[in-house]
Amino acid sequence: MYKKVAILGSTGSIGRQALEVISSFGGEMQVVGLAAGGNWQLLLDQVKTFRPRFVSLAREEDARMLAGVELEMPPEIYWGQEGLERIATITEAEVILTAVSGAVGLRPTIAALEAGKDIALANKETLVAAGSLVMDLAAARGSRLLPVDSEHSAIWQCLRGESPAWVEALILTASGGPFRTLSQEQLARVSADMALAHPNWAMGPKITIDSATLMNKGLEVIEARWLFDVDWEQIRVVIHPQSVIHSMVEFVDGSVMAQLGLPDMRTPIHLALTYPKRRGNQLPRLNWLELGALTFEPPDPGRFPCLMLAIEAGRRGGTAPAVLNAVNEVAVNAFLNRQICFNGIPGTVSDVLDLHTVIDYPGLEEILAADRWAREAAEKILVKYSR
User: I need a surface site. Which of 18, 135, 208, 348 has the fewest CB within 10 A?
Assistant: First the structure.
């Protein structure tokens, strides 16, 4: 097996773990492109190790800093949105790992699909904001979407070899985050430091906060609807605090197939990069004798309204999911910057969705316009939830 890979978001949590996985293949995978945000020093280390031909950074000034370093094999350096799209469309790249956070991943993912690339998808916002466009384009170009999120990877594995007609329900599991037993009064006092301490997973700050509000699970419901082409009524969410069962599929005969493993993102990354084969690795294994009890409970929509806000926006369709996603990004950032309280995240999302006039069957430019509108509207509402 020999694959050429480009990574969007190489200095983030998923990107770093993907490079760790690629290193374990001992030269059987070549990194041809890396795109990062603002951490040019870490990107420099990655360039020295993996020697990609092309790299990109978010800002021109960071790109110039990188360009000023003497390297034995200097890459071509790009920046900004154009740079992301350049890395996403490298001719020799066979797989593009999209691991950037937020709606910024939409344009480069579409560019990669238009170029006929397979996408290892860790950027759920792409399908949330533009699911119909993305799936139609992938089908037209013959590209494969390879799920990297642990939940969608689990469902993907459970469905292999099964007829869609046999599927009764997709069951997404959620850890419930660190606050699943707190009262409303206690939730109002949650700090960013508390929310960033996820009990099971090591993730970036944005997705960790989304896990704490259960917005992450709502976004995954929308993503699952597009990835697996099922009706909304066929997607269920259960809280599973141990994070051992990553998701399940219930079939029409009552059988349930589940995918289990330790909460380690390197496992689904490994599978996406080696698909259609499975390759051995040295990642930690479950110890069945020490596993203990696996428990389940329903999500509490009163305590965590973000879950239902996301599902309702997904059902409404059109530009509603793009607005939901954009407002959530703004609100999460404000919470991380200690500007608003924890409960201000769902409050801001709900308020902006109420203001939005949904456009049905939007094109890409209408989706991006809705995204911009939502961010501006959110900034005006944030003061309502300030600390």
Answer: 135
